[in-house]
Design goal:
Phosphorylase Kinase, domain 1, globular, Transferase(Phosphotransferase), domain 1, 12% strand, two-stranded antiparallel ribbon, nucleotide-binding, alpha+beta, single chain, Ser/Thr_kinase_AS
Length: 479
Amino acid sequence: MPTLGFLKKKRTRESPGQNQKDLASPTSTSSQPGSPITPTTSRGFDNSITTVSTQSTIPQDLSTSQPEAPSNQASPPTAGEPQPMTPGLSPQQQQAHPVPADQQNLPTISNLINPPQSDGATNSKNELSNPSAGENTTWAGNDSTKQTPAVQPTVIRQTKGKYSLGDFEILRTLGTGSFGRVHLVQSKHNQRFYAVKVLKKQQVVKMKQVEHTNDERRMLQEVKHPFLITLWGTFQDSKNLYLVMDFVEGGELFSLLRKSQRFPNPVAKFYAAEVTLALEYLHKNQIIYRDLKPENLLLDRHGHLKITDFGFAKKVPDITWTLCGTPDYLAPEVVSSKGYNKSVDWWSLGILIFEMLCGFTPFWDGGSPMKIYENILKGRVKYPPYIHPDAQDLLQRLITADLTKRLGNLHGGSEDVKNHQWFAEVTWERLAKKDIDAPYVPPVKAGVGDASQFDKYPEETDHYGQHGHDEYAKLFTEF
């Protein structure tokens, strides 16, 4: 199968041949983090904590005080970038490596997660550590306040031709892919850091990705949500397309998951809940995402998620037929070339939760896409004994080929997913405001362009900013 995705790693993607001025904008002259985010006071820790143990060492003082968590996010400060290509073994090939005790001094979740009840996460010392068994902390809340505020009307930002190369200093490459690369840049106006995704027009046309590329720009222009990447503007020259986006310092959830082997029940629940809110927002705006996976989930400096890479996102009021996505995460109706709707994203959420809890995807088979497709169509999932019963029940209701039974596709829509027993501790309103501490805070310095969580790559030698004959201009008029 061809690898047609942008910034891919092990798993390939399959595909056919503001009205309001924001101080976080790259051309803003303010050097201060000027987005309208009001920080909330950090909550103190109690005796029951969940920690994420990886092989990276975090300064000791982070384990006793959390950064302030933003609430009421309207537009993020310096956040977000598309994923890099980081080398590494597949989850099925990777062997467990014990983490020395002196390297487990990592940040904690406080007052948000119930300790897992014999979900098996304590069976391996190579995995994420669990909460103290005798305590009963909750996801901040009273179960009576679980409703997320109604989605506000979408205000479409004007992004076309908003910036130019002259507005930025290119610092380094964050990732490379089939169509180009992503650079860390610094604005010459407000000195803040952004990620610029550069796509080679010739490659986009050659790989038959013109429609998906235009859809990506269009979808990113319309969305605005705490758990989605922000597109600040676009521009082009005769050879390349440029998308100016958030720089998300913390790197990919994929990298954290590989270091941790698998997540304990409460940690997987935290990330799954944030993804659920993001999918709910997209679907209410008639947008199907179609490429959910750990590689496309970035961690901001507070440890909250940002979904990136909207290359396969599209407005779909009813059904569509395009075969696209990542083999491990494709729903059976996509594999069988049937028309499908937004419920394929809920199937993918099930696969994501399974991978976070187990360290591998349920239909993986030697890495061969065709074998994976066969397994998806057979639909047989083996659940390890350490998966919590509530989690298994949710997975069985998401990873089902029967669209009349798949949660998210029923009359209750996303509320059926949010009201499932596995999410019983979640106070959705507080989570939507990021008013809950994340289980892991990346070891990065804020506001200084810290790209330590991303691999280094040879720098681009092609000259950007060329202005000559553009044979593809008519294909990308919206840039």
